[in-house]
Amino acid sequence: MYIPGCTPQAPLSPTVTDVLPWKNDTVLALLVLTLGVAGTYGRMSSSGLVERPIDSLGLTLIVVSSVTLVWRRRSPLAAGGVTAACAVAYYGCQYPGVFAAAPALIMIYTAASLGRRRPAIVLAVVLAAGIGVVAGLSAVDPAPGGLSLLSGWLVAVVVFGEVARNRRAYLHEVEQRAIEAERTRDEAALRRAGEERLWIAQELHDALTHTISVINVQTSVALELLDRDPSRTRTSLMAIKESGHEAMRELRSTLGVLRQPESPSAGLDRLPALIERAEAVGLSVRSTVTGEPGELRPETDRAAYRIAQEAFTNVLRHAGPATITLTVSHETSRVIVTIADDGTPGDAEPGMGLIGMRERAVAVGGTLAAGPAPSGGFLVRAELPR
User: Fold this and answer.
1) Start-end of H helices in the chain
2) What is the model's pTM?
3) 24, 122 Cβ separation under 8 angstroms
4) Domain spans of the chain?
5) Residue 56: is it exposed, middle or buried by C-beta count within 10 angstroms (0-12/13-18/19+)?
6) Is the CB of residue 257 less than 8 Å from the CB of residue 263?
């Protein structure tokens, strides 16, 4: 599983991952060999053909056929051919029992389970045909049972192999879907974290930039009047103090939203305080509200206020002494916020302010246009859905 912030582990080397199947196949080969030799010497089964006592050649065929199972996953076709040839040769020599066919049946199952359907069928046909020829050349007819059931066993092992392959493929698909779902969840979490960081940056930028701009203007006024008019200096210092309090309120509001999404945040009801602060630093503001205010979505209300706040900040920083005309038009399906000024365009490079305003408008499904006004000054117009 991928965990953000953690370094993925390197995949195991093939030599390590192949150890367990290799051991399992070795154990299977030894088990088949033991049962085959014990069952054959113990006369626990009959092939239904004429049989003669087993000798060293028959034992060698059983051993070779069983040991070949060690390579059943690595070389299924070659191993299958060896086991089938050993089985046909064993019964061709009229050795007793049915255990010599077990390795060939296992190899047919293995080929089918590994998705080698055609080779599995070919091995089954070769084994059935070879033993059929042996039975046909026998001096007497085969007794009922024994090898007469071979065809049924061959069909069964092919079917079982197909079932095992399909089940393994299904489990692999389920595992891949789980991995993909986990990766998708991780990507969604990272995306949400990025969106939250962007939102926090926008909130802090809009709140603090405006307040710091007001403090800078009032500080400049206080320094100029410190010697000439101390009484007016006191007014500027009080305005700086109030701006500091406003910055603290903005920060608490932002942190409150982070801790508890239902906490109150900035909205159009705070426009009077915004206008008051702008007028305190020497800007002239004319405001107009048209239409029935009604109730706005919280995100639309916040976006409208932040856009107005950033526009006021830009006028304060770049336009010099200016008159701001603020218009809020409430319509049935949208609210339109227009901020126009008649100041002198500044020479500052475009910054994050306009980008942030546009992102806020787009985030709530609205649009924003900003640029020099035809009659001079600068114009910001935001259309936001209610």
Assistant:
1) 14-17, 19-41, 56-67, 76-92, 102-113, 117-136, 150-225, 230-259, 271-280, 298-314, 352-363
2) 0.47
3) no
4) 14-144, 266-386
5) exposed
6) yes
Tokens of 38: 């014990």
Phi, psi (deg, nearest 5) at residue 325: -110, 110
Strands 378-385 and 284-290: unpaired
266-386 is a CATH 1.20.1260.10 domain: no
CA distances from 13 to 22, 179, 240 (A): 15, 21, 67
| 51 neighbors 142 (Cβ within 8 angstroms) | no
Block means of pLDDT (10 residues each) for the chain, 386 residues, are: 41 45 84 86 74 87 90 87 89 84 89 86 85 74 58 81 85 86 77 70 68 72 70 71 70 62 67 84 86 86 88 79 88 91 65 78 89 84 91
As a whole number of angstroms, the distance between CA 266 and CA 286 comes to 21
Q: Which long-range contacts (CB under 8 A, 24 or more apart) does 269-276 make?
A: 270/305, 271/305, 271/308, 271/326, 271/328, 273/246, 274/305, 274/308, 274/309, 274/312, 275/326
